[in-house]
Structure formats: C-alpha cells, structure tokens
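@channel sequence for tomorrow's demo:
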Amino acid sequence: MKAILIGILAALFFSVTFILNRSMELDGGSWVWSATLRFFFMLPILILIVGYQRNIKPVIKHMIARPVPWFMWSTVGFGLFYAPLTFATIYGPGWLVAATFQLTIIAGSLLVPFLNNKIKQKIPIQSIFISLIILAGVFIMQFEHASSVPLISVLLCVIPLIISAFAYPLGNRKMMQVVNGELNTFQRILGMTLASLPFWIVLSIYGFTAHGLPNSSQIIQTFVVAISSGIIATALFFYATEIVQQDNQKMAGVEATQSGEVVFALIGEIIILSAPLPSIVSFIGMGFVIIGMILHSIVSALGNRKSLEVIKKSGIRQNP
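structure tokens (generated this afternoon):
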C-alpha cells in the first residue's frame, strides 16, 4: 500500500508535464525545446542533490563499467519516452495525451516475459484485467474529443504515445536490472540523465536549426516541469517501483497509479488553462479510472498479506 500511495503522489507531480507542455504548445513553443530543456535543467539539480550526498563517484564508476546498457536503456527510458510524449501535445490537449499515455499500464504487464532472461516469468493476467477497467475509463474520457479530431491528428497523437508508453517501463525496469540495487534512486536518475545526454544534444541541435531558440516563457515553464516531473515525480515513481521490483503483481499496481495523471491533468487544465468543464461522460470515465486504481491497491495489499502469512508459516524471522 505504501508503494501505491507514493505512486499516486508521483502521478500528481507528473501531471504538471501534460498541463505545461500543452500550455507551451498553445503559446507557440516548440515541442523539441519542451523535451530537451527539461533534461538540461534536471542535470545540474541532480548533480547538486547527489553531490551533497557525496554519491557521484559510484555513479560514474558504474557507468564506466557498463557503458552500453547505460546508454541504451537510458535513451529508451528517458529519450524515447519523453520526446514522443511532448510531440503528441501538438495534436491533443494535456488530458487527452495523459489519457492515451495510460497504455503504459498494459505495456508494463506485457513486457514482463521479456525483461528477465534468467527467470521465466508469466504475464500477470489479473493485473491486465484490472488495467482494462482503467483503460476503459481512459477511452471513455477521450471519446468525445477524439470523435471530433481529424484521423491524421489522432494518428500523430496516438502513435508517438504508444512508443512512449512502452519505452518508459522498459527503460525503467531494464535500468533497475543494470543497477541491481547498487545505486539509490537519485543516483540512478542522475546516471540515466547523463547517459541520455547524446540523444538530447542531437535533438536540441535539430530544434535550434528548425525553430530557433526558445522564448523566456518556455524556459521558465520547462524549468517548472524539470523540478516537478523530472526530479520530484521521477524520484517518487522510481522509489515506488524499487520497493516492489521483485513482485510483478505489485509492480503492475504501482504503474497503474499513473492513471491518476489523467484526473490531475484535467483538473489542472481547467484551473490553469481555463479548459471547459468535462461532460458527464468524462466524469464516468474518471470513475472507472478511480475504481481500477482502488482494485489494484486491494490486490497489492492482499498479495502483501499472503506473503507475510507464508513467511510466518515458514518460521522466517523478519527484520524490524
């Protein structure tokens, strides 16, 4: 239950991404700068945080020891996750992007058999069924808007988000395997930010060539996104997944909490961007999302209780 609550809090901070990315798009800012500036801003902040803890040296050593997996999975987990996500804001409001991104709930479960070569694992079917309830709510929420958007706009919004939805859990889980508990959450985020820099540098060169430099409003808003989503939300979510990384059922539950981004993004757009109040149909969709999150929490709590009972029966003593 602790991991679920941390996941919901992460969703709140993550929702800032969808709101402000849409705000920057409406103001004429390029999606390229919305993506790249976030990670450029994150880097010095992370260096200060990890440097204050005197933990930078282990990160560098770990990256030098395994440069290829660090570069590859960091580019997937950060680059192929966030660049398509920001691109999608051109073709849909923040809440619609957040809603479609919830495909990551299913993606995380479908990726289970391919994430560990040493141990054969099955797709957590129970989590898939619960996630379908959440997705039903997500699609109900976006139905009215999607029905009024041209097909090409729908495709240019949905296809990048499918890539993003698979890249995020794949990169996150693969990096957990690479790190293998040897680095803490902030060290891992710092390492992934450093390793993904080549991707962001190349993208920023394209951004400068195609769109010129960003304006001051976009720089300020991207800085807020970097703090809220890049530092706070990412740290909370990574910490939640690390707590339950040995249990696929609970991992799916934590990843499902990110569906709360839809609700938070919608509320944020109404308050900050003066978006219209959603219809009764959208509220029904939110209800499905909340029910799905509650079910995931219950399943996670029951799974934890069963594990404790097994430990108690086997006579294994737990640390206090």
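heads up for whoever presents: The CA atoms of residues 108 and 169 lie 6 Å apart.
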